Amino acid sequence: MDVATLALNAALYAALGYVFFAILPLTTPGFGLVRFWPQVVIPAVFAVLFGPWVGGLGAGIGIFINDMLIHGNALLSLTAGVTSNIAMFAIIGYFFQRRIDWKLPAVAFGVVAAILVRLSFMVLSPPDYGMGYQLLAAGTIIGSYAFYLIVLFLASQWRSYATGCMLGLLVGSAIIGITVPVVMQMPFVPTSLIYFVWTFVTEIPFLLTLGPPIIKAVRRALPPSAQRLIEKGDQK
Predict the structure, then answer these.
(1) Is the pLDDT of residue 156 over 80?
(2) What is the DSSP letter of 79?
(3) Nearest to 177 by CA among 59, 28, 73
(4) Does the chain have fewer CB atoms within 10 Å around its N or its C terminus?
């Protein structure tokens, strides 16, 4: 089952990523390379339902296939795309299987959100960007953190998932922000900060808002035998 779900995760991630980019080829404004990626929710669903390694390894394989189809730079994919995806979705799957105290993450991510808002105004300044980009990035960060708090207080069953998404995406964004400028021999500052902010801002809304309803729908659609296996994994 693990091999089958991992392969399905990789195939869906690669295929839908390619189709979506063909329809809407958005990348980091001014720098390119890192794509607008709402299908980030796919491996998150697999990580929650089938475990961190199914989610992480499936995402790593899927993003590598997708990268080879789109830009063909294997070194960039292996260092930035594969590593960030494995880390991010393994963290999401791991945290979902744990019960956490919500107070510390609420405070910690509040501090991180404040830092990210400050970074947004610093790195998205004119002449390359401007007030529109700054407000959009800051608004998305603040809105995502507010939504995270709502989940913590009103949807306790999704606390671990939301916390894993926040932490996993921060780690994944940091890996991308560090590795892409190094591999592509771009100026490290402010390029690394822009990639970091872009990745987090454009992906966290989809993880937090689309993940829970899709996970619930897939759970209901699975046969009873698969549901029992998932429930055993949750209990661990």
Answers:
(1) yes
(2) I
(3) 28
(4) C
